[in-house]
Write a structure and sequence with these properties.
This protein is mostly helical. It has helices at 3-28, 35-42, 46-52, 56-72, 75-79, 85-102, 106-116, 119-124, 130-146, 155-171, 173-180, 184-206.
């Protein structure tokens, strides 16, 4: 058996624990979540959980960091690709919606924990790609405006539009589903349709006057 095959069960177990922990933290919040709850959700005993993660604090930090990286880690490459800005916007929106569709509890988890502990994000921001993503986004929008490809606009307004249009439907999903009666499949179909609508909204926002 190769070394990679030997490592595979450990990698799978750690991932299983992280998935379970995010579900429990999202459902109960950090303060109310217990290691016993996470072990039960992961289908393992508490001793095995403690073998991988010694404390709830450490487990929470890993879950939080992993989730923030999912938000922004892969988007920098899309922003800096050698393509017209409208294509990059479309690809960025599509990638973000795809990521959110595969992690539908992610926005609520992050929002709940930042609301609970406002210092959390500021203490971890330098360890995560948040600052780099913002810097790259601002630079790309500024450079495109200087070239005349888009109008002069504060890049942070564009960033806020991107974040709110993509993320809010997932934060507000329980209310939307209650009002509309949409099934999970219908909600996902709507979000697929929104890829084009969101991209068009952003492109119109930055379009030269």
């Amino acid at each position: 058996m190769s070394q990679e095959e030997n490592l595979q069960p450990e990698v799978n177990t750690e991932h299983q624990i992280l998935v379970a922990a995010r579900k429990v933290f999202t459902r109960k919040g950090y303060a109310a979540a217990r290691m016993e709850d996470i072990a039960k959700e992961a289908g393992i005993n508490r001793a095995l959980l403690h073998y991988y993660f010694r404390s709830k604090d450490r487990l929470f930090e890993m879950v939080f960091d992993e989730n923030i990286r999912k938000f922004y880690g892969s988007f920098i490459g899309i922003l800096t690709a050698d393509a017209p800005i409208d294509i990059r916007i479309r690809n960025l929106v599509s990638a973000e919606i795809d990521m959110l569709l595969h992690n539908q509890d992610l926005p609520l988890f992050v929002l709940n924990e930042i609301t609970r502990n406002p210092e959390l994000l500021s203490t971890r921001i330098n360890l995560l790609p948040l600052r780099e993503f913002k810097q790259v986004f601002v630079r790309v929008i500024t450079e495109e405006a200087a070239k005349g490809n888009i109008r002069q606009i504060n890049p942070l307004h564009v960033l806020l539009h991107l974040m709110s249009l993509c993320v809010f439907p997932f934060v507000g999903r329980p209310m939307f589903v209650a009002i509309s009666g949409a099934t999970p499949e219908q909600f996902e179909a709507i979000m697929e349709e929104r890829k084009q609508l969101i991209a068009e909204t952003l492109i119109q926002l930055i379009k030269p006057r």
